[in-house]
Amino acid sequence: MKGDSPEIAAEALKTGRLVMLPTETVYGLAADASNPQAVARIFEAKGRPRFNPLIAHVANAVDAETVAVFDASARALAEAFWPGPLTIVAPVRDRDQVCDLARAGLDSVAVRVPGHLKARAVIAAFGGAVVAPSANRSGRPSPTTFDDALEETGQAVGAAVDGGPCAVGVESTVVSVLDGQVALLRPGSVTREELEAVVGPLAEAAGQGHRSPGRLALHYAPDAPVRIEAEAANDGEILLGFGPGVGEARWSLSASGDLREAAANLFRLLREADRTQPKGIAVSPIPRTGLGEAINDRLKRAAGFVG
Ligand code: TXA
Ligand code: MG
Question: Where does the UniProt annotation locate this protein (predicted)?
Answer without folding.
Answer: Cytoplasm
